[in-house]
Amino acid sequence: MLKASVAIVILAAGRASRMGEGGKHKLLAEFDGVSLVRRTAMTAFGSDAASVVVVTGHRRREIEAALAGIDLTLVDNPDYAEGMASSLVAGVSSRHAHSADGILVMLADMPGISTAHLDALIVAFRNAGGQAVVRAVSRGKPGNPVILPRSLHPAILRLEGDVGARGIIATSGLPVLDVEVGDAACLDVDTPDDIGAAGGTIKN
């Protein structure tokens, strides 16, 4: 496999329940004047991935509006309230992702992840011939994003509840390659304080 294809699936469907009352949505918080979900999508779009898919759900219309003008695929997850697994299933089931050799699962609420980080993961995946799990780590601690090879698609499609792919990775029997990206691998923003500490501003 000379150049394994990678599709990025951005999970942006969650309810942001830890933001408190008042209708604030973390993915609409702004970093350097750009909403977090758009910033994440632009980071993905600038990488060497073949395609970018964004899974929406909670406040779908606002999230979609924030992504206007970016050449990506939007996938609605009407079952988003059931947890992360439903969004993974929706993303993997999309046409662009399903045909790729690997799926890079990217959480929409990680402002520290850069295009260079994504490309480093993709290079590691390609160097492994598309036959390994590749994950970002922070000083050896597993984090996100993660690239899952096509051979794991059936297991992903069986996921249920508020779980990610950690269990699948642990039992896959595949090599797991760690790519050190520093603090960004474990920096997500779940609360207003998190957003402020990461340099963001809550808009709505």
- Share of helix, binned: 25-40%
In angstroms, what separates the terminal alpha carbons? Answer: 46 Å
Shape, principal axes of CA atoms: globular
Tally the helices. Answer: 8
Q: What sequence of helices (H) and strands (E) makes up the elements?
A: EEEHEHEHHEHEEHHEH
List unreliable stretches of 5+ residues.
Answer: none
What's the Cα radius of gyration?
16 Å
Strand residues, percent? 15-25%
By helix and strand content, what is the structural category?
Answer: alpha/beta
Strand order of the largest sheet: 5-4-1-6-8-7-9
Main β-sheet description? 7 strands, mixed
**DSSP strand tally:** 9
**Average pLDDT reading:** 90
Structure explained in plain terms:
With 204 residues, the chain is α/β, with parallel strands linked by helices. The protein has eight helices and nine strands. A seven-stranded mixed sheet has the order 5-4-1-6-8-7-9, with helices on both faces. Strands 2-3 form a two-stranded antiparallel sheet. Strand 2 and strand 3 form a beta hairpin. The mean pLDDT is 90.
Secondary-structure blueprint of this entry?
Blueprint (H helix, E strand, L loop, with lengths): L5 E7 L17 E2 L2 E2 H10 L5 E6 L3 H7 L6 E4 L7 H10 L1 H4 L3 E6 L7 H13 L5 E6 L2 E9 L3 H5 L8 H6 L4 E5 L11 H6 L7
Parallel strand pairs: 1-4, 1-6, 4-5, 7-9
Antiparallel strand pairs: 2-3, 6-8, 7-8
